[in-house]
Every structure is written in C-alpha cells, then in structure tokens.
Amino acid sequence: MVKNNDFVFLDGAMGTMIQDYIDLGERPEDLNITRPEVIRDIHKSYIDAGSKIIYTNTFGANKFKLSDSIYSTEEIIGAAVDNAKKAAKNTGALVALDIGPLGEMMEPSGPLKFEAAYDAFKEVVISGVKSGCDLIVIETMTDLYELKAAILAARENSDLDILTTMTFEANGRTFTGVSPTCFVYLAERLGVTALGVNCSLGPIELYPIVEEISKISSLPLIVKANAGLPDPVTGNYDLKEDLFSSSMAKLADLGVKYIGGCCGTNPNYIKEMIKSISGKEYKKTKVESKAFASTATNTVFIDDIRIIGERINPTGKKNIQHSLKSKDLSFLLREAVLQTNHGAEILDVNVGFPGIDETELLPQAIKEIQAVTDAPIQIDCSNPKAIENALRVYNGCPIINSVNGTEESMDAILPLAAKYGASLVVLTLDEDGIPETAEKRIEIAEKVINRASELNIGKERLFVDALTLTASAEQASVKKTLDAMRIMKEKFGVKLTLGVSNISFGLPNRDLLNSGFLMMALQSGLDLPIIDPLKEEMTDMINCYRVLSAKDVDSGDYIQKYSNMVKKTVSDEKEEEDIFSAISKGLKKDTEAFTLELLKENSELELVENFLIPALDMVGDDYEKGNIFLPQLIRAANASQVAFEIIKQRLRDSSSDPVSKGKILLATVKGDIHDIGKNIVKVILENYGYDIIDLGRDVDPEKIAESVVNSEINLVGLSALMTTSLDSMKNTIMRVKEVSPNSKIMVGGAVLTADYSKKIGADFYAADAKASVEIARKVFGKEGEI
Questions:
Q1: Closest Cα to residue 7, out of 299, 228, 223?
Q2: Which residue from 123, 171, 348, 360 has the highest number of Cβ atoms inside 10 Å of its Cβ?
Q3: Which alpha helices (DSSP H) does 654-744 contain, by range?
Q4: pLDDT at 709 (0 to 100)
Q5: DSSP letters for 327-382
C-alpha cells in the first residue's frame, strides 16, 4: 500500500466525534444514512489532519447488532463506504472497511457458533467489497476464535489487504485471556497484512505490550491507542494531545508502521501525533521463526522435549470406540484432562474408526477438547476433508499428523497447512512405502521440505518422523531410524517426532523396551515423543535425559519433581477425581455423575453449600489470581449448572421450594447495546444459585423500575459500556430508588469506577463477574434464601 520506509497515519476515534450528534439509544452507524454530512465531515477532518487511511463508520454494522434496526447491514455499510469515499476523493486517502466484534459470546463460553460468526462477517465483507472499500480492518477483538472467523471471512471473500488489532488489558492479555503471542502467531499464519493493538489503554500503558509483539511478529505493526482513560463524570480522557503524541512517537520506534488514535482522540490528536513522528523512519526489526503449537491462551514452543499424548486414539481401545460410536465424547475429554495432568503438553487426537464419519466427528472432537484444556492439538487423520473441517474450527495453530512424500499427500495436505497456519508431522515414506535405508528417508524428508517452502511453510513448521518399525519384525531398522534422525537434525535443522511405542509391538514387557528406545531416540535428536504420559517410566526417562543433556539447568525441574515424591499410580489419579476437579475442568458429564453419587449421602442443600459453591469459589479464586481466564471461568460455571439443574428437578419432584439464593434483575441501560459483560455476570450468578431476570440491552428506566416492583427485586445489576449512556444509568438508579427504596443496585462496565458509582447513587460497584457474586452474598446473606 505504501513504501516500506513510510509510516501510515490512521484516523482517530469515530465514536468520540459523533457523541454530540446522536440521540440516546441511536446507533452511531445509523448516522451514515440519517446524517451523512456529519460522517463525511469527520472523515474530512481526519484527512485534513494527515490521516492516510480512514475507517468507515461500521464498527457495529453486523446482523447481530443491527437485529432490530430499520436498516440492513448492506444498507448501512453501503452508505458508510460511500461517505468515506466522498470524503477521501482526490486526497489519496484510502478507505478501510471497519469490522468490530459481533457483540455475542463465542462458543464454548457462549452460544455463538464459529460457523455463524463466519457467516456474519462474510456478509459484512461482501457488502464492503461491493461498495468499493480499499482494504479491511478488523479491530477491538478480544476473542481469538472470533478474530479467526473474521480473518477467514475477509480472506475467502476478498483479495484486499487485512489489518487486524486486538484489545489488551493492563495484565497483558485480552478480556478472554488471549496472549499477544497466541494472537500474533495465528494472525500471521492466517495471512493478514499487518497486526497490532487498539483501544482499552493509552500509549504509555500499551508500550510493554507493543514491545512484546515487536519481538515476535515479522509483520508491520499497528497501534491505535486511547487518549488515556475516560473520566466517568465528564467523559473526557486524561491524556492531552502533547503527552499522547510524544508517547506515540516512542511506540513508532518499535516497528510500528500504522499509527492512529482510538477512544478520546480527535483530529487535533492526529495532527500533533504526526508532528511528533516527523523525521523518524519506519524500521521493522527481524525476528527469528520458532517452532510451536498454540491455542488461544497457550503457546507451546518446541525448544525442549515436549510430550505429545497418544491416548486419544480408538485403535484397540473399546472405551474410545464406544464413545465415538455414540457421539458422546465425554470419555475423550477425560482422557485429554488426564494426559495434561500427567505432563502431556500437546494432545494427538484421532477419531478414525470403521463406521465413523470423521468429517463430522473430528471437528466436534476438536471443539469439545478445546473446551476443557488449553493444550494444543495434533490432528491425527488421513482424510483431507476431515482435516480441513477440523483446522477450520480449531482455535489457534495446531499440528497436522500427517503429510508424507507421496504426490497425493503433498498436494492435499500442504495447501491446508498453508491456509490455516498449521504445522506438520512429515512421515518419511512415499509411493514405495517405508524405505529400508536411512538415506532414502532423508531424501523423502528433503522433498517434502522443499515442496512446503514453495507454499511459504518454513522448516520450523515441519516435524519429521523417521518412522518406528517394530523390533520384533524389523530389528535392523531400529538403527536405521536412529541414524536417519541424527542426519536430518544436522542437515536440515528440523524438529523430530516419533511414535515411540511402536518399537515394542509383539514383544513382552513392552514398557521396558519403549523406555529404552525412548532414551536412544532422545540422544538422536528427538524433540516430540508421542507417548502415553501415564506411563511413568516414559516420563521419568525424559526427565533423566533432560538432566543428563543439561537441558534441565542445575537439575532444577528434576529436583522439584522427585524430592520427597510419593509415587502415584493411574488408579490413584482416578480416585482423586471429584466434583471439584470436574467443575474446574468444565466436564459436564463427570459433574453429573458426581452429583448423582453425592446426592445418595447428601441433601440438596448440603450438596450446594459443601460442594458446588466451594468448587465455584475455588475456580473464582484462580480467575482472580490470573491462573485461569474468562473461558475457563464460564465453562466451570456451565458445568456446575448441570448439578444445579439436577437439584432443582429433584426439588420440583418432591414439591419442595426451589433452590434459590434470591432474585436478581439485570439490564444494560437505555442507550447502550453492549451486553456481553451483563451476559457473563448472568451465567456466573445463575450458577451460584441465584434466579436471574434478564431484561436485555437498551432498556428504558421505566421498564426496569416496573420490573423491580412487580417481581419484588432486592438486587438490581445495571451495565453500561459507553460514556454516552452514563446519564441513562444515573436516571435509572434514581427511578428504581423512587419506586423501591430498599432495593440495592450494583453497576458495572468499562467506563465506570467505584467512585463514580457512588456519585450516581449505586450501592455497589462490580469490577467483574466474580465481584457480582460477593455483592449478592452481602445483599442476600451467605446462605441466601435456600
């Protein structure tokens, strides 16, 4: 789009600029049609200030946020692009189609399916391209799964450049726990033009996050920072133009190419920012390509021995076969959790079995396993269609197991890895089968490496498998496998993987042979052993090797693990499983089973107070400490809901009063259409046993007050995300207090603070969903109304 050594100046905030023009409850996007001259003037003012790319006024233009609008998505986007193009005419400025979040919670934390999200973004992209936008911007994302759906929609339905930014909080992660590393690696591999950060924080707070991204991203970076944080009373942001501009100039030195402003900025900010950066030259630092596999919240670098768990495979395993046939994957989920508990950092997932439709079941398995663990997945399948279906719904960068040296395999699998950003297990076999010699296996590996490079798949994404043949039938081949590994490691510098347990097939005392061969393979350069992590002799051997090869510096890990160690067996592990672990991992089937078992010896009240609430408190504490993130918190709440439903049904059947700790009314106030935060609070409170009356979003104060009286509500929860709706929140609080003076009110939202909450008459400020639980406990008492 521009010369490599040029900065590209973006515009500033649109929402800040149009606040004086919109009525309460009116959508900013509506102004594209109702007040086009206002939008054009804002675009022109940014262009006059020096912006070379302007964002269309379409941040909330999608089927979900426009569900009750009189205008269609296509109408809004068509008008928005037209306004921007007219403003940019003859100026050289480019028009970017602005795509924001859909406003719905993605699976597995919420109801929005990946496929439905993709379809919504596809509609936006097609409308923007049809209207003549110059490029596509995907911004203010907090959920990596949603971002993936948006990027795929943009790539598959346009040939335009794609700029994408996520919104990070002060803890260095997004609202849903996405790390900069997970974001960068997925976005890069999906083929965006540039990536970075926007919103949430000012340029000073964003510096360490941008610095981290600059060390791992090979792409030009984007920063659109806020003008600090808003004052809830005045709505003004706390960074003036001079401090904002000088801080942005420092960010420009980190390889940032696309620079603009977000909330609180205006054309004056952009103008001063450009002056501050004047005289600088864009320079992108080089970064080293690394081998890894990732999810939305966890990146596993292949810089040490990493165990790939092999147990999710139906071969010879009746429990998994039954699970696949019944399409009840709860056993697979337990296997996933069990393996990660025993040291597996990556999970091999194979659902291939006669009578099973892998094209349907494999993506289902991927979704469900990713809902209970953040361990990256190795997709073990030979069906290209099933592989693509799984890759499409996988959240992060997985591994494909496998590609080989046949033309058919390379033609089918390599393009899939290139499109979806996957790494690959490379099997050293071809049309002639498994070679007898090490030289031939090396030759095949080189062929695949070269073919992969043609699709920009680097060697760091190829994990070569020299193939293990059983020693009982091919004893001489053991040495050939190890020789091939040593040569390929030295010649190609690739990572090596191996299915270790194949070596002992048909021989007695298999564990002994497996552990011995594992040590030999490690000495030959093995990085990714595919093993059963529940076999302690295997993991022990890896820990020994790490000490003896000096990978475990000063034997620190070894000492920590084995000092005063009490040896466990697999059966011990199973005995330790309980309703606490089931809820914490989000295992619904296990939670159900434990609930029914516990109810044999505990009353409904005892189960709630002695098991369910403590389990949720334990998860909540982990969330507050940053040990887990929002998706895990919600999954635990959803698992506990299974137990609560069983209890409620038992009480209904016995004609007892329902289990309820009290009724709480929730609503997003008039003028605000954002309700994700409210919905999260609803899920958490429901699973602590409270009955929730949810009035939805953009709710009139009178309706809220009327519902409080009619339903005899003791606690009201009000949410607001936009500064323009703060007056509405204040008015709602006043009206509720008029009709029900004894009702307590808690408020929450990104624009609120504890001090401002008191000023507008709220009784409590809820900083997050967990805080709302503590507030409810104060209002209803620790025991509630049960």
A1: 223
A2: 348
A3: 676-686, 701-710, 726-739
A4: 95
A5: T-THHHHHHHHHHHHTT-SEEEE----TT--HHHHHHHHHHHHHTT--S-EEEE-S
Residues 6+ apart with CB under 8 A from 564: none
Alpha carbon separation from 330 to 101, 286, 312, 348 (Å, rounded): 31, 45, 12, 16
- List the one residue out of 587, 600, 682, 693 whose CA is nearest residue 642: 587
Preceding amide of 267 cis, omega within 30: no
What span, in angstroms and rounded, lies between the C-alpha atoms of 87 and 80? 11
CA dist 257 and 206 (Å) reads 15
% of residues, the chain, pLDDT over 70: 95
State the Cα–Cα distance between residues 488 and 441, nearest whole angstrom: 9
Report the range out of 508-512, 561-565, 696-700 with the highest average pLDDT.
Answer: 508-512
Q: Are 463 and 399 in contact (CB under 8 A)?
A: yes
Cα–Cα distance, 117 to 365 (Å, whole number): 19
For residue 402, the model assigns a pLDDT of 94
**Which range among 422-436, 653-667, 720-734 shows the weakest confidence by mean pLDDT?**
653-667
* Number of neighbouring beta carbons within 10 Å of residue 92: 8
Which amino acid would we find at residue 434? I
Q: Cα–chain-centroid distance for residue 618? A: 23
User: What one-character-per-residue DSSP string does 681-694 give?
Assistant: HHHHHHTTT-EEEE
Please state whether beta strands 299-301 and 292-294 pair in parallel, antiparallel, or not at all (unpaired): antiparallel
Sheet bearing 53-55, strands edge to edge: 8-9, 256-261, 221-225, 194-198, 162-166, 135-141, 94-99, 53-55
Q: How far, CA to CA in Å, does 434 sit from each of 474, 477, 500, 778?
A: 12, 11, 16, 68
**Do 233 and 220 touch, CB atoms closer than 8 A?**
no
Q: 168-206 burial, b for 16+ CB within 10 Å, e for fewer? A: beeeebbbbbbbbbbbbbbbbbbebbbbbbbbbbbbbbb
C-beta atoms surrounding 255 within 10 Å: 23
User: For the segment 192-238, what is each residue's pLDDT rounded down to a tens digit?
Assistant: 999 999 998 999 999 999 999 999 999 999 999 999 877 766 667 88
d(CA 707, CA 694): 10
Task: Region of 586 please: left (phi>0), alpha (psi -120 to 50) or beta.
Answer: left
Alpha-carbon dihedral of residues 672, 106, 621, 204, nearest 10 degrees? -60
Helix (H, G, I), strand (E, B) or coil at 768: coil
- Average pLDDT score over residue span 611-638: 87
Q: 680 with 769: CB under 8 angstroms?
A: yes
658 band by pLDDT with thresholds 50, 70 and 90: low
> How many other C-beta atoms are found inside a 10 Å radius of the C-beta of residue 737?
19
Sheet containing strand 744-748, strands side by side: 691-694, 663-668, 715-719, 744-748, 764-765
Q: What is the pLDDT of residue 657?
A: 52
Place of tokens 């909540």: 620
CA neighbours within 13 Å on the CB side: how many for 9? 26
What residue type is 779 in one-letter code?
A: V
Say yes or no to pLDDT of 539 above 60: yes
**Three-state secondary-structure class, residue 4:** coil
Q: Encoding tokens for residue 543?
A: 């820990």
| Per-residue tokens: 363 | 């993506």
Would you say how long the chain is, in residues? 786
